[in-house]
Structure of ABC-2 type transporter family protein isoform 2:
Amino acid sequence: MEEIQSQSEHYRSSSSSASSPASRVPSSNFFYLRKPGSLRQPISFEDSPEWEDTDVDVRVEEGGDSINAATTPVSPSLSKLNSGSLPSPQLPEGAAVARKIAGASVVWKDLTVTIKGKRKYSDKVVKSSNGCALPGTMTVIMGPAKSGKSTLLKAIAGRLHPSAKMYGEVFINGAKTHMPYGSYGFVDRETTLIGSLTVREYLYYSALLQLPGFFCQKKSVVEEAIHAMSLGDYANKLIGGHCYMKGLPSGERRRVSIARELVMRPRILFIDEPLYHLDSVSALLMMVTLKKLASTGCTLIFTIYQSSTEVFGLFDRICLLSNGNTLFFGETLACLQHFSNAGFPCPIMQSPSDHFLRAINTDFDRIIAMCKNWQDDNGDFSSVNMDTAVAIRTLEATYKSSADAAAVETIILRLTEKEGPLLKSKGKASDATRIAVLTWRSLLIMSREWKYYWLRLILYMLLTLCVGTVFSGLGHSLSSVVTRVAAIFVFVSFTSLLSIAGVPALMKEIKIYASEESNQHSGALVFLFGQLLSSIPFLFLISISSINEGLMLAVASLWQNVFWSVLTLVTIHVVMMLAAGYFRIRNELPGPVWTYPLSYIAFHTYSIQGLLENEYLGTNFAVGQVRTISGFQALHSAYDISPSSNSKWENLLVLFLMAVGYRILVFFLLHFRVRKNVSLHRLCQCNRNSTT
């Protein structure tokens, strides 16, 4: 304790602020001030709404699935937004008023998450965290990198990785139950968007995938989501741009990913790093938009690494983490008071979030080591000479014995002593509807995305032109047989190689599937059928690649990386070319590797055989004046084919079975390999039940 007190006294003397909270009160234009004189009274968590205020009267409108709230609690910090200190965006003329949402209370109690090997110092990523989120409020989980923010958010949402195990309890409206489909939304840190669609098209197709009912009923939901996220000016613009036109800025892209979840009208919305890769202006606009969304009654829980003073003033409650430990939970102003009580008051000219992270981020210890015994023109660096480990221990000990921690336990007890209304699922779109939607959407994407099939078609046309000119004038004599075999081999092999140009587009499609499957918007079988049906018109133009399309999907699903997928496909095609029977007749290939199984699993072999059999079977060549030989005899010395008249149909059957087999392999890879890399909702619900 003597070490802690000495460190605290040192920081008090080196800080530009005074030791008392009253002396560090900034000017009234700072956004995190509620009203003059508010800091004179002790800041308590008891100011938050009680359980009785969060009860809602839920009713379902006739003829629809929309849910309205008779009463919606208002955030106690909304006055900061409506007081005039921060102007709200003006609504366009004729715009509808935001729909009220019946939010839900979320409580987590003694929440601990363990991941083996995740941290060197401990396998506990989150340690005995307590907190709650109320309807109509924004609750932020803040902390430095690798502090457990995203893990805690995913644990509350029930989306932990299978390697993680959760202990503790999560209550929704006072009941220990999972959140059904459609009652909540989750936005990952990085969401893959479809650049070739406009914002309105993207949200409309998302609504068709998520919501049951008729197509015409989804338009109003999409317009509400566009209005809620202030995307009216970008509704008809392509997300990724077109040709020389730029796509949406990063801030608008982030709002589109949030709007995708709003089409379900969720009562709880989880967002992982909503300010990820955003500048200060985009970040402020994002938080103002989320504040408006919270004012409709939705419960918002999100993570943030750092924020400006203006953004910090919009938060209602903050959960401060460091190395998995909860250093504070309560109102934002109470957090400032907490740091002051612990001996680390926030300087006047410093942002609160910067001050918090400066005190609890262990990475600053490296800066202390660099600045030790180092001076500049303005003096020494004593202002940064603070041991973060001591600060973390001080803040944690102060919080555990504070009135804020006791207030959290009190409100958790109030919110869990009786059960509120249970969340209900709004239903899903049928698999047939999803297949039809994905087919039409993929068809639209393929027609607009020139890198998908149009580039490959151009390459095939150039290859055809080159092969046609190089092998022109062959004639139909016996001497042209060997050269014609070479032409067919070159065409089949090079066409398969050039099809690898479609790997980046397929990789993007798999990422879109993974993003949608994580939120249960799609499935492996639905994606597979939709992609297959939508590619049929284009594969008719380049039919030789229809089998190779399945192979590319399988490899891309296996690696989920462009470089390794391209390298693997090139290697496979080179091996297939060697085993195709052109460089050496298949029956003369050394076994067992080259003859069995390589020569029999290479689709080059059956493609070339089918083309040659169609070309030469049933034909005759004159040898001298009186003797003729069949096409099979003429070809036998150059390439191994079957003399049967039905052999070309057998080769077509083998190629068809290969195409089907590759698709089946893709299904299992999507179902197990890709799904393994996204959070599993059902498994997390099982982990949630194993509480201690």
